[in-house]
Write a structure and sequence with these properties.
Helix content: over 70%
Radius of gyration: 17 Å
Number of domains: 1
Number of strands: 0
Distance between the termini: 48 Å
Shape: extended
Largest sheet: none
Order of helices and strands: HH
Structural class: mainly alpha
Amino acid sequence: MVKHRVQELSPIEVALDEMQMRITELEEVVFMKPTDAKKLQLRLQVGTECVQVQLSFVQNRDWAVD
């Protein structure tokens, strides 16, 4: 490794960066000829599960605080 760069991002910047990566991954699958339905389904599920896990964590954390 020649250079090492550290950049601090705000939470919104991290979320935007993650969304851009997911869009890029989805575009790769969607525009592939022929479209691989199984791969597309997996890409869509991963995004949904991630959101559900995060929401569950927040709900459980709020419950534990009460």
